[in-house]
Design goal:
25% helix, single chain, 67 residues, alpha+beta, globular
Length: 67
């Protein structure tokens, strides 16, 4: 199964993902998916952090801004 790509969100929309779990951009995306989030997790990069938005109630809004 191929994991979804990490999407990019402009910094001006950072308030949408501020409550989601995150890690620094220098961390391993593959490692975080394998160990913590699962391979199907939807990750979004905003500024210097990568956020897991899989369970967010604002998921549809976040994904619309990220495309």
């Amino acid at each position: 199964m191929k994991s979804p790509r990490t999407l990019y969100l402009r910094v001006k929309h950072a308030a949408l993902v501020s409550d989601c779990a995150s890690f620094h951009r220098t961390g391993s995306i593959i490692g975080m998916r394998r160990k913590f989030y699962g391979m199907a997790a939807q990750l979004v990069r905003c500024g210097s952090y990568i956020y897991n938005v899989t369970g967010s109630p604002l998921l549809r809004s976040i994904l619309n801004h990220a495309r």
